[in-house]
Amino acid sequence: MRVAIAGLGSLGKRWSEVLSRAATVDFAAFIDPLIERPGAFPWLSDYPNVPKITAIEGLDGIDVDAVLVTAFSPAHAEAVRDALKSRLHVLGFR
Asked: 44, 45, 56, 72: least surrounded by Cβ within 10 Å?
């Protein structure tokens, strides 16, 4: 399963650690509006070949089975809506 993680704060980082140990999961993309800010998510250097984008709409053309929404509370519902509008399966934690 190819999973994109939307929201790369502490919860997104933790879920990336958990999912990286699953033999059946590959990362399709990492998504966060702050992803281009220098030094924002230093842990992403562990995944040099995974696309890093600022919005779920940027997943067009990327092979993804589901979006795991780990965005902070104010952005959570919007991220879920955006993923559903893109006709993607959504995994959400809140």
From this structure: 45
Residue 21's domain comprises 2-92
- Please report, in tens digits, the pLDDT of each residue of the chain (94 residues total): 999 999 999 999 999 999 999 999 999 999 999 999 999 999 999 999 999 999 999 999 999 999 999 887 777 778 888 888 888 888 876 5
- Give me the number of domains the chain comprises: 1
Q: Are 14 and 7 in contact (CB under 8 A)?
A: no
* CATH of residue 22: 3.40.50.720
Predicted TM-score (pTM) of this structure: 0.91
